């Protein structure tokens, strides 16, 4: 919470019922994770959401004008490659999710080693979308390629693909001010961000490896 206790006591949550409910919710989530043999991270839903996010980002970039400045053919090729990588990720993710679902519902039993392999894969898949050097140099403290705060409109709000969309808005802003060198710089950051995203998706796909699982 970013407000003083007096505001909470008198206006926001007088009896602290809302905050108590939020605390209970997170405790229940923690209990559910602790009680689950396999981490309850639904890869099928994650892949579907990622596909939707990419479609929305593509439309957003087109509205800004990024497609024209990159070149329509090159722009479509970039997103073709992104969707190809995403399709491969979805295919592998669905296979892994079927195994996880079978284990969590009791339809399939696994050894301790197999459970560890599944849990490790789930954790590493999420880590594949974390850029060690940050989403771009000016925001190196933010490292998740998909989710970050919104630098342009609201630092407290969430933003999808901050390493791509934020620089795209910066490019638009610099272009409107006639600062071509800065605009070119931000366009370069947009291209790097798109490359990072494709690499992350491909890396996540490679993590879903079933070698040794049934040995």
TrEMBL record:
Transferrin receptor-like dimerisation domain mapped to chain residues: 79-193
InterPro entries: Peptidase_M28B (IPR039373), TFR-like_dimer_dom (IPR007365), TFR-like_dimer_dom_sf (IPR036757)
Molecular function GO terms recorded: carboxypeptidase activity
Superkingdom, natural source: Eukaryota
Protein name (record): TFR_dimer domain-containing protein
């Amino acid at each position: 919470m970013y407000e003083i206790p007096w505001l909470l006591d008198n206006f926001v949550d007088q009896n602290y019922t809302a905050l108590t409910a939020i605390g209970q919710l997170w405790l229940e989530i923690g209990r559910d994770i602790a009680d689950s043999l396999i981490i309850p991270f639904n890869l099928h839903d994650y892949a579907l959401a990622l596909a939707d996010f990419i479609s929305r980002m593509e439309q957003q970039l087109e509205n800004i004008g990024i497609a024209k400045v990159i070149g329509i053919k090159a722009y479509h090729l970039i997103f073709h490659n992104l969707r190809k990588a995403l399709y491969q990720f979805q295919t592998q993710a669905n296979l892994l999710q079927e195994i996880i679902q079978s284990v969590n519902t009791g339809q399939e039993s696994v050894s301790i080693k197999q459970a560890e392999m599944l849990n490790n894969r789930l954790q590493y898949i999420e880590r594949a979308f974390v850029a060690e050097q940050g989403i771009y140099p000016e925001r190196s403290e933010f490292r998740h390629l998909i989710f970050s705060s919104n630098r342009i409109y609201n630092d407290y709000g969430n933003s999808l693909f901050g390493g791509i969309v934020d620089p795209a808005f910066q490019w638009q802003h610099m272009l409107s001010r006639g600062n071509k060198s800065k605009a070119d710089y931000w366009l370069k950051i947009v291209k790097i961000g798109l490359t990072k995203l494709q690499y992350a998706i491909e890396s996540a796909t490679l993590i879903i490896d079933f070698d040794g699982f049934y040995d």
